[in-house]
Design the sequence.
C-alpha cells in the first residue's frame, strides 16, 4: 500500500510501547457550576437602575462597570464627604493660625483649645464620611476629583447621584435579573442585578454507591463522557468525597472537576464518569482499534517498507481502550491503530484473489 493511499484512507500509525491498563468505575453524573466561580452582582444601595451594560452571555472582567444606578443615598454620602472635607480644611487653617498665635503668646489659651477641639471634631466627621464611602465601594479621592471637574465652567452634567456597579470576577453573564428603571436596594426590591459565572472550570456531581466508595479517593482521574452522538470526552479529577451517605439512595456525593476552556460542557447536562480506581503497568500495549480478527485469530497490521504485514498476536489483560499483547509484537514496532478494518478488507481481497 502506497503512502498516499494510507493518508487518503486515514490509516493512522503509531509505535508500540509500554503502557498502563486502568480498571474503571463508571457512574452517572451531572455537569454543575463550581460555586466558588459564581458571583452575584448586588445593587448595594437604594436607587433606580439607569443603565444595564451587559446582556445574557456577555463576558465581563473583574472591576468592569456592568450597570449604573441613580441613588439619593449615594448623593448624600458623597455630599457629606465633600462638605466634611471643606470643613476640615477651614478648621485646620483656623487651628494652625491659633497654634502660631498661642506659641507667640498673642492669644488666649481658651481660644487655642477651642480651635483645636473644633478641628479634631471636623476631622473625626471627615473620617466617618470617608468610611461611609468606602463601605459603598467608592474611592474618596475619585469623588473629590469628580467634584472638581464638575465645578469647572461649561460642565453641566453631575455624577453626584450616579453609582457604578462592578463585576467581582471574570466570567459570563448567566442571569440578568432587572431592567432599566427597576428600583433596587429596599426591602422587597430585587437584591441582585446579574449573576456572573466563570465557566472555564465546571464540576461533575456524582452519586457513588456505598459498595464502591472504598475504591474512590480524592485526586483520582476521571474520564468524563457526554454519552451522546457527539462523543465529547474530557479528563477530570476527583476533588471531594462526602463523608455522609444518603439513607434513601445508599450513595455518597462525589465531585469531580473538569477543565472547560473550550466551553463544551454545559451545566445541567447528563454525563458519565469513568473513575480510574486501579492501574496496572504492562510491557506491550495497543489500542483496541488496532486489533482485528482474521480466521479466528487476533492480528495487528505491522508497518513495512511496502505497506502492512498481518501479524498474529496473543492478547492478555485489557481495559475500555487498550489491550495487552503477551506475544507476537515488540515495543518499538509500528502498527496501524485507526481504520484497520480497511486493511482487513484489503487482506481479504488478496486471499480471495
Sequence:
Amino acid at each position: 500500500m502506497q503512502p498516499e493511499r494510507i493518508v487518503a484512507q486515514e490509516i493512522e500509525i503509531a509505535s508500540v510501547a509500554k503502557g498502563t491498563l486502568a480498571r474503571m468505575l463508571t457512574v452517572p453524573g451531572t455537569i454543575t457550576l463550581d460555586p466558588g466561580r459564581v458571583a452575584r452582582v448586588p445593587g448595594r444601595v437604594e436607587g433606580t437602575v439607569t443603565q444595564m451594560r451587559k446582556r445574557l452571555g456577555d463576558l465581563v472582567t473583574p472591576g468592569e462597570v456592568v450597570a449604573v444606578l441613580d441613588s439619593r443615598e449615594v448623593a448624600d454620602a458623597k455630599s457629606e464627604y465633600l462638605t466634611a472635607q471643606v470643613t476640615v480644611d477651614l478648621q485646620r487653617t483656623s487651628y494652625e493660625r491659633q497654634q502660631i498665635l498661642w506659641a507667640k503668646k498673642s492669644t488666649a489659651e481658651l481660644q487655642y483649645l477651642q480651635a483645636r477641639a473644633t478641628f479634631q471634631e471636623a476631622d473625626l466627621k471627615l473620617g466617618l464620611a470617608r468610611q461611609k464611602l468606602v463601605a459603598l465601594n467608592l474611592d474618596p479621592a475619585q469623588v473629590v476629583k469628580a467634584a472638581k471637574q464638575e465645578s469647572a465652567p461649561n460642565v453641566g452634567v453631575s455624577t453626584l447621584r450616579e453609582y457604578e456597579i462592578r463585576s467581582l470576577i471574570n466570567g459570563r453573564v448567566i442571569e440578568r435579573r432587572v431592567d432599566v428603571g427597576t428600583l433596587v436596594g429596599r426591602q422587597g426590591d430585587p437584591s441582585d442585578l446579574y449573576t456572573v459565572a466563570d465557566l472555564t472550570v465546571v464540576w461533575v456531581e456524582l452519586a457513588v454507591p456505598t459498595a464502591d466508595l472504598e475504591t474512590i479517593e480524592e485526586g483520582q482521574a476521571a474520564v468524563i463522557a457526554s454519552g451522546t452522538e457527539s462523543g465529547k470526552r474530557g479528563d477530570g479529577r476527583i476533588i471531594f468525597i462526602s463523608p455522609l451517605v444518603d439513607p434513601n439512595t445508599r450513595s455518597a456525593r462525589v465531585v469531580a472537576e473538569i477543565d472547560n476552556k473550550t466551553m463544551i460542557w454545559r451545566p445541567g447536562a447528563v454525563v458519565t464518569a469513568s473513575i480510574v480506581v486501579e492501574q496496572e503497568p504492562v510491557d506491550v500495549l495497543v489500542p483496541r482499534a488496532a486489533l482485528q480478527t482474521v480466521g479466528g485469530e487476533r492480528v495487528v497490521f505491522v508497518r513495512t517498507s511496502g505497506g502492512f504485514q498481518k501479524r498474529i498476536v496473543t492478547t492478555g489483560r485489557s481495559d475500555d481502550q487498550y489491550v495487552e499483547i503477551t506475544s507476537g509484537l515488540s515495543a518499538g514496532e509500528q502498527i496501524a491503530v485507526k481504520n484497520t478494518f480497511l486493511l482487513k478488507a484489503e487482506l481479504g481481497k488478496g486471499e480471495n484473489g
Summary: Residues 93 and 103 are 15 Å apart (CA to CA). The chain has four domains: 3-19+281-352, 23-34+199-279, 43-71+161-196, 74-160.
